[in-house]
Amino acid sequence: MTAPQLKPELPGELLIEIFLHARSGPNPISPLTLGKICQGWRALSFSFARLWTSVDLTVDHRFRTQVILLEHWLDRAQDLPLALSIHSTRNLRLTVNDWDHLFQLVGRKAEQISSISFALPALAYGQLAEIDKDWPALGQISLSTSHQDDSVFFRPSPLRTFERSPQLTKAVIKQLFLQSFALPWDNLVRLELHRAAAYEVFNAIKTCKNLEVFHITLALELQQWEGPQPFLSLTLNTSITHFTFAVQQVFANRLAQDAFQDLRLPELKSLVFRLPSKRSGENTEFYLPTPFPLSIFTPKFSTQLESLTIHSGYLLVEDFLTAILFNPSIHLLDLRRVSWDDSCEFGRRFFRPADVTRGWARPYYLPNLKNFRFEGEIDFGPEVIIRCLESRWDEADMRTLESMTFIGSGKEWVITDIHNQKFEEWNKRGFLVSIR
């Protein structure tokens, strides 16, 4: 059997659409690859500027060849907006002149670059400081280190390369201290800090006065670093509406207290905790199951909270119930792999049936809850959930709660055919019930 032949008479407009589709998605095809198919494809792909507006360069030992290709690539994009991503492989050793050459090419296109993602060694950031340009189109930026020993990189004077970026609204900083950079902080509406020190919560919130979305992942090993001291006064921010707090080590409680004990976010709508849990095989001698201090977030944070997510961690039932009691406006609650001091007490109190006396009904906790998801180990059976839902949906016809997903495990958690029949009845009435 002979291989199928490509149709040489395909219209150029159709080929362009094929090329654009090939450049999109999670595994885009390089226009350099498209240009290898045949002479016609090469001429068309090399002359169509939109194919060259996204640059994803991983710098390695072929650096000098890569720089030549990068220069041609940027030229083929003509004057269109550019998305630029440059990462270096670990342990790559380049000279100051090498990095200077690379950034001079980048600087030539400063007016066109709309997004930047850099994962570079400390030496490279030193050379990046030499670029003195305006970045009028830059809307988002991601800066991180690529070497393991650069994870606490801190510049004594902030890098001002991107300070003149009037359109910059989104920033991601990973394995670098916030003070290492001078950005137009007042413009930012979204900020992500990864592997950050606890005091940088205060630095970020005080510096970014119009921030709406703030994500921070704390790193335990950075807490002892002798850098700039945290703000000790009350920190108030009236713009943040979405806040994500994550830690990767089991000793998260002190970090949370350091980071949030004097923090006030009165306009907060969405709060996410991604907490550590003991992994199988860890040495229990050094694992202390002390509870995460959820109480420090209430009532100091917003009483208008609409969404609360807690993944992993160890909580006191009393702390959790107090937190949600101060936030009756919560519409979405997502609890996964949380450990409790008494999961039986959690089930008895949180799933307490709604009060249907005197002709009206009101759940004791979260009367405005619409969507609830739970996943984890518990010490009670499905009857507790069923009784709660019966009081809401059967006895009082309360339709505030629309969706219930409950994935339980434990010796008491046994679902029978009778339970499944009840769940199916609720699904037929329009509720979304998945309990297993």
Helical content band:
25-40%
Rg for CA atoms: 27 Å
The residue ranges in which pLDDT falls below 50 over 5 or more consecutive positions are 224-232, 280-288
> What characteristic shape results from the CA principal axes?
globular
Helix-strand sequence: HHHEHEHEHEEEHEEEHEEEEHEEHEHEHE
Q: Major sheet: order of its strands?
A: 1-2-3-4-5-6-7-9-11-12-14-16-17-18
Number of helices: 12
Class per helix and strand makeup: alpha/beta
Mean pLDDT: 82
Largest sheet: 14 strands, parallel
Distance between the termini: 53 Å
Number of strands: 18
Short characterization:
The protein has 436 residues and is an alpha/beta fold. It contains twelve helices and 18 strands. The chain has helices at residues 12-23, 31-34, 39-47, 63-76, 96-108, 122-128, 200-207, 253-260, 317-325, 343-350, 382-394, 417-428; strands at residues 54-59, 82-88, 113-120, 140-145, 170-174, 190-196, 213-218, 235-236, 242-247, 263-264, 270-274, 307-311, 314-315, 332-336, 339-340, 371-377, 403-409, 432-435.
Salient structural properties:
single chain, alpha/beta, 14-stranded parallel β-sheet
Question: How does this structure look, described?
Answer:
The protein is 27% helix and 21% strand. The protein has 436 residues and is α/β, with parallel strands linked by helices. The strands form 3 sheets. Strands 1-2-3-4-5-6-7-9-11-12-14-16-17-18 form a 14-stranded parallel β-sheet. Strand 2 (82-88), helix 5 and strand 3 form a beta-alpha-beta unit. Helix 4 (63-76) packs parallel to helix 5 and helix 5 (96-108) packs across helix 6. The model is unreliable at 224-232 and 280-288 (pLDDT under 50).
